[in-house]
Specification:
Elements: E1 5-10, H1 14-27, E2 34-40, H2 44-58, E3 63-65, H3 68-74, E4 80-83, H4 90-99, E5 103-107, H5 114-127, E6 131-134, H6 141-151, E7 158-168, H7 186-202, E8 205-213, E9 219-220, H8 232-235, E10 241-242, E11 249-256, E12 261-270, E13 275-282, E14 285-289, E15 299-302, E16 307-308, H9 324-330, H10 342-363, H11 371-390, E17 394-395, H12 396-400, H13 408-415
Parallel strand pairs: 1-2, 1-4, 2-3, 4-5, 5-6, 7-12
Antiparallel strand pairs: 7-13, 8-11, 8-17, 9-10, 11-12, 13-14, 14-15, 15-16
Helix pairs in contact: 1-2, 1-10, 4-5, 5-11, 7-11, 9-10
Length: 418
């Protein structure tokens, strides 16, 4: 293995702690190609906490900084930054890291508007640096298998994908900022995952017709620890109630370039029984996918009534192979199911993202989720919102060009992007 590439963790909150577990996982693998040399956060308490955890997990304590400029100046051998700040600052922090000469892995969403995404993409191109976005659902082995089943013709020609998620009630979901229009709504923060999976399965969209809602105008603090329990340090200090300003539900009809249709419901204000469903119908059968990071098997139903939800499903996906690192992490080149808890799965997926960053820097290869890919995911989330404001379908082209921006314009003005 070549000399490890030194990188900095920029953002030391809940997501930064999750990413650290991914780096620790990579450091224990046969493919470790990175070294955490520094951590950076305006909140020095959070930065020191993360540095202490890094020492505990990997035996070395990274240097602690509050300034990207000072960090780069004092560490001339730094080559990359992992940006895990709050979503509303992704575009400014990622741009600052790129301008300082660092290759960037940025947590999703790349920015909270399409214009913000464009700013980061343009900066990376000008500097000739790697820009990779940490979109993790597609790296789940079960989603890799689902994609192979589609590509290998297990269900024939894909015709319809139904992506549905309803729940959340009136609770604060993870953090208060995820409910505010100008800092990154829950519809975007979570929905960008679903958008990426739909595009990963079926390709780019052509048009979207839809609507959005802000259903819950008051949300309540339940002291939730969030995904993996990483937000428990802060959740008790959140206010008892907040008044959201950003959308909490999307309803969309999507036309893909391939001719397939998508029906997407993402409602984070649902009461009563929760709903989570992912179905793909084709000309020869149907896939019922289990969601993400849970390891449950895919169910393939064929026209003759045969239902396959065991190891036989691999026969319908001959092209399915995990990368060498993924095969090591999951113990198989072709897993069709696995039994790991959330944090075990999450850390493995994050390890894959880190390794890819190192390899892209070392070899000059493009990452799987480029800035352009991540921008298309953000565009798909905003498409039903903008469609509802305009009262007509919107196209991918006008979303990328930010000409369908009735909703986003206020955010861009707030961020100084207009």
């Amino acid at each position: 293995m070549p000399e490890r590439i030194k990188y900095a963790a920029v953002g030391c909150g809940g997501m930064g702690r999750r990413h650290l577990r991914g780096m620790a996982r990579l450091s224990r693998s046969s493919f470790n190609n990175l070294e955490l040399a520094a951590v950076c956060d305006l909140n020095q308490e959070n930065a020191n906490f993360l540095a202490d955890e890094a020492h505990e997990f990997m035996g070395e304590r990274p240097k602690v900084y509050a300034s990207i400029e000072e960090m780069v100046r004092e560490n001339p051998d730094l080559r990359a930054a992992d940006v895990t700040t709050d979503a509303g600052s992704h575009h400014t922090v990622a741009t600052a890291c790129l301008e300082a000469g660092l290759n960037v892995l940025c947590e999703k969403p790349l920015a909270i508007t399409v214009r913000g995404c464009n700013r980061v993409i343009e900066t990376a191109k000008q500097k000739g640096l790697v820009l990779s976005v940490a979109e993790n659902f597609r790296r789940d082995p079960i989603n890799r298998l689902a994609r192979a089943l589609i590509d290998d013709g297990a269900i024939g020609t894909p015709r319809l994908m139904i992506e549905s998620s309803v729940g959340g009630g009136s609770n604060i979901i993870i953090t208060p900022w995820r409910h505010m229009k100008n800092t990154g709504t829950i519809a975007l923060d979570v929905g960008v995952h679903n958008a990426d999976i739909m595009r990963y399965y079926l390709g780019d969209f052509r048009t979207v017709y839809g609507e959005s809602r802000l259903h819950e105008t008051v949300r309540h603090n339940t002291a939730s620890a969030g995904p993996g329990g990483f937000y428990a340090r802060w959740s008790a200090d959140f206010p008892d109630t907040i008044e959201p300003t950003g959308e909490d539900a999307l309803y969309a009809h999507i036309s893909f370039e391939s001719g397939a249709i998508g029906q997407w419901i993402q409602d984070h204000a649902g009461h009563g029984a929760r709903l989570s469903s992912r179905l793909v119908y084709g000309s020869k059968g149907r896939l019922e996918c289990p969601g993400d990071r849970n390891g449950r098997p895919i169910k393939l139903t064929l026209d003759d009534g045969v239902v396959i939800d065991d190891a036989r499903i691999l026969e319908y996906a001959p092209s399915y192979r995990l990368s060498p690192l993924a095969a090591e992490l999951w113990g198989s080149e072709r897993p069709w199911t696995y039994n790991l808890d959330f944090n075990e799965t999450d850390s493995r997926i994050l390890a894959l993202e880190y390794y890819e960053l190192g390899e892209c820097i070392r070899t000059g290869a493009a990452p799987e989720v480029t800035g352009e890919e991540a921008r298309a995911d953000v565009a798909l989330v905003y498409a039903p919102i903008e469609s509802g404001r305009l009262g007509r379908p919107v196209t991918l082209e006008e979303m990328i060009a930010a000409t369908a921006d009735v909703y986003q314009r206020e955010i861009d003005e707030h961020l100084g992007l207009l």
